[in-house]
Write a structure and sequence with these properties.
It contains two helices and ten strands. By secondary structure, the chain is of the alpha+beta class. The chain has two domains: about 70 residues, Signal recognition particle alu RNA binding heterodimer, srp9/1 (2-Layer Sandwich), CATH 3.30.720.100; about 90 residues, Signal recognition particle alu RNA binding heterodimer, srp9/1 (2-Layer Sandwich), CATH 3.30.720. The strands form three sheets. Strands 1-4-3-2 form a four-stranded mixed sheet, covered by helices on one side. A four-stranded mixed sheet has the order 7-10-9-8, covered by helices on one side. A hairpin with a 2-residue loop joins strand 5 and strand 6. Helix 1 packs antiparallel against helix 2.
Length: about 160
Amino acid sequence: MSITTTTHLNFTGQARAALEFYQSVFGGSLTIASYGDFGMPADAPGAQNVVFGQVESEGGFRVMAYDIPGQVGGAPDAARASAADTVVGGGTRRENGMTLTDQPFFVSVRGETLAEVERYWSALSVGASIVEPLAASAWSPGFGMLTDSFGVTWILDVAAAYPAE
């Protein structure tokens, strides 16, 4: 028996834009179904919002998202100081060597090589707030943390090679 765990992000009207952005970063196929696709009248508020969305790549990346019914946030804007109001959660920052957050989770992406992780970092960091720059750390050849323009905090790192026991 095997199971698959998939991060499911909850947005307030930005799920479609977020999923399209994540597809541009990680590649793969995009699936989006709106509330209207499931029977909500097309002219009803929120009918075009996402009831089910997913990006899935052959390389193993998968994320799901939807728009919380009845909740509407502003359009994503890289110039905003904080995009935390577009996703359920809040802010993340580094202070005195510690990561402080009010978010219940981070999305972690681990690659096999620094070059691979750098490609994802470069694309994902557009409009993002950098929490911890991508750099070598005590546990990885590359580790970084950012909060993207949709308010989602990501950890990107390179899988460390551990000696065989």
